[in-house]
Amino acid sequence: MSQSVLTTKRDPFRWLKVSIAFLSALAFLFPIVWMFFVSMKPEGTAASSAIDWFLPPYTFSNYVNIIAGSDVFLWIWNSFFVGAVTTLLTLVLTSMAAFAFSKMRFRYRKALYLFFLAGLMVPGEAMIIPLYEIVGSMGLLDTYAGLILPGIAAPLGVIILKSFFDGVPNELIESARLDGCSDFRLYWSIVLPLAKAAVAAVGILTFIGSWNNFLWPYLAIISEALYTLPVGIPMFNSNYSETYILPMTVNAIASLPVIIAFLFFEKQIVKGVSFSGIKG
């Protein structure tokens, strides 16, 4: 420990790294701070310069008007419900598939796993039209099921979990099988608990992807009662295109659950991004 402290003190560029990190943090935080300041300005406020957005007067009447006159909480609930169910189903299916590929032996196992790898190379936009036709033929358009079921196919989750399941010693698996442990018991009681970090990472990434998904809900949903946040906010903004204040207030309200969730699950989110190799 003392050696690491000395190494840190001897780093001649430490001040430069800290300064760059601090400035980068300010650059990312500035739009969020600006959004909340704008959301508290009286409706119809004009700004002659950027600094005027941060100066008084302030009011919370915009929040009261939005809560009373819009369906923003319904959109938040829809996004949360769809995200939670999608995440739960995705974790069940991906973890079972990953366990099968990692710890079970069956014909064409490697060939099937290549199909999962190939799934990462297909752009989501390329599957929109056939997906829309399939869901429409099943009568699931404009339903919660139509929003949820297409999102549970997650080849990336299978790949991440398989890499962690591969790290579980095969000797442990074989000894458990000799004791009469079934495959499901191996999956549920031995392998899955050892990969809690990976499961949490896949779950967080899945929920974030569902929460931010715009294209598929926009195409699959007609009823306003089923709007999710990414669909509801642009619809609201189109009705208030001549002003900044109310659309910014809606965005501020919609951002609060995500900001709170990030504060509670910061380590898991960062770990999930590092596991998947996704940046941004």
What's the SSE blueprint?
Elements: H1 2-10, H2 14-39, H3 61-69, H4 72-103, H5 109-119, H6 128-137, H7 144-148, H8 155-165, H9 170-178, H10 183-194, H11 196-212, H12 215-220, H13 229-239, H14 245-264, H15 266-276
Radius of gyration: 24 Å
Report the mean per-residue pLDDT as an integer.
84
Structural class: mainly alpha
Q: How does the major sheet shape up?
A: none
Helix content, binned percent: over 70%
Distance between the termini: 32 Å
Uncertain runs are none
User: Strand portion, in percent?
Assistant: under 5%
Number of strands: 0
Question: Mind telling me which CATH architecture this is?
Answer: Orthogonal Bundle
CATH superfamily: MetI-like
Q: Within the CATH hierarchy, at the fold level, what is the topology? A: MetI-like fold
How many domains comprise the coordinates? 1
Q: Describe the global form.
A: globular
Discrete helix count: 15
CATH class, named: Mainly Alpha
Quaternary form: single chain
Order of helices and strands: HHHHHHHHHHHHHHH
Structure description:
The mean pLDDT is 84. The chain contains 15 helices and no strands. It is mainly alpha-helical and 280 residues long. Helix content is 71%, strand content 0%. The chain is globular. The chain has a single domain, classed as MetI-like (MetI-like fold, Orthogonal Bundle). InterPro entries: MetI-like, MetI-like_sf. Keywords: Cell membrane, Membrane, Transmembrane, Transmembrane helix, Transport. It comes from Alkalicoccobacillus plakortidis. It is a multi-pass membrane protein. Pfam families: BPD_transp_1 (PF00528).
